[in-house]
């Protein structure tokens, strides 16, 4: 699990060759993570005190350590905060996205206590606090003018939209159907309605494919009308990692990120690579285009994409585009 800087290069009729870097936040996401991540209920606790009656304040040793880190780490460098705002188009007028099961799948508002100016939380490592604030980016962003867009802050990963001749090519449709659909609806609302002509799964982790049913209809994939493109070995590894090893990974994640705790400086804060996984419907539509060779080219709806398989990197089945 780490930040995955994935250059992708595309060209097409109206698109000169260009290279961009995008951040695809990654996590190993078990099949039942959608439910597990939020536990079906999001609890936000008063940030000024511990949420548990038996909970303790940080010791003087912890406070000294955090103070030392604040003095020695380069927190004066604010460039990341400026860059995180670059290309911002709009935020939606809602903070919550509901799951089909009736629970709240996503609530960016549950983390807003992080945004109060000038706070230092002695219960949070200063670097995690900084990262958690950067991860509050929420809404639609332009990455390459009139060509590449992202919706951020709707799930653990970002979802990217490439403007093709007649529609959208979607890169990595989040963890949950509900958040992926909300992202598609939002970009269509802001930039005009376009059909999804293709989906690319960059790799076999659930936060990069689980929401696919929110952006395409499986019948259109089966008929070949919509291309779903994935690296060689995708299905084998998506199943072996997320189903066979799913329960063990879910339990590990509970401890690693504290996702079942109330959202508070004393509880769940962030997952560093993104805020959290959405507690919605995780699904999978098998790809109908497999990238088998080391390098392959494919033109979809006027956009030429160059794929490079990179198995065994951040995931066992993975590719750059
Ligand atoms: Zn990943």
From TrEMBL:
The keyword Signal applies. Gene3D superfamilies: Metallo-beta-lactamase domain (3.60.15.30). InterPro entries: Bact_Alkyl/Aryl-Sulfatase, Bds1/SdsA1_MBL-fold, Metallo-B-lactamas, RibonucZ/Hydroxyglut_hydro. Transmembrane segments: none annotated. Pfam families: Lactamase_B (PF00753). Keywords: Signal. The keyword Cell inner membrane does not apply. Residues 156-312 form the Metallo-beta-lactamase domain. Residues 1-36 form the signal peptide. This is MBL fold metallo-hydrolase.
């Amino acid at each position: 699990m780490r930040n995955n800087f994935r250059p992708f290069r595309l060209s097409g009729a109206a698109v000169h060759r260009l290279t961009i870097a995008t951040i695809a936040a990654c996590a190993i996401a078990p099949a039942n993570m959608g439910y597990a991540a939020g536990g079906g209920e999001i609890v936000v606790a008063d940030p000024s005190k511990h949420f548990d009656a038996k909970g303790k304040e940080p010791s003087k040793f912890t406070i000294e350590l955090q103070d030392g880190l604040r003095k020695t780490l380069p927190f004066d460098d604010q460039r990341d905060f400026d860059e995180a705002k670059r290309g911002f188009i709009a935020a939606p007028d809602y903070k919550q996205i509901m799951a089909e099961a009736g629970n709240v799948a996503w609530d960016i508002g549950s983390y807003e206590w992080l945004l109060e100016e000038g706070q230092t939380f002695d219960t949070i490592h200063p670097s995690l606090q900084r990262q958690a604030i950067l991860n509050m980016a929420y809404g639609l962003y332009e990455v390459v003018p009139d060509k590449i867009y992202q919706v951020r802050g709707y799930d653990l990963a970002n979802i990217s939209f490439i403007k093709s001749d007649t529609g959208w090519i979607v890169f990595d449709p989040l963890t949950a159907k509900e958040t992926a659909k909300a992202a598609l609806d939002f970009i269509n609302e802001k930039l005009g309605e376009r059909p999804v002509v293709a989906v690319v799964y960059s790799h076999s982790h659930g936060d990069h494919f689980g929401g696919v049913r929110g952006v395409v209809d499986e019948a259109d994939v089966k008929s070949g009308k919509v291309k779903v493109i994935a690296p060689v070995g995708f299905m084998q590894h998506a199943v072996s990692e997320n189903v066979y090893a799913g329960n063990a990974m879910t339990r590990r994640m509970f401890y690693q990120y504290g996702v079942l705790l109330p959202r508070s400086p004393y509880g769940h804060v962030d997952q560093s690579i993104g805020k959290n996984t959405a507690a919605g419907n995780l699904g999978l539509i098998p790809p109908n285009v497999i990238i088998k060779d080391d390098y392959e080219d494919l033109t979809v709806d006027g956009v030429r994409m160059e794929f490079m398989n990179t198995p065994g990197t951040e995931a066992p089945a993975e590719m750059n585009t």
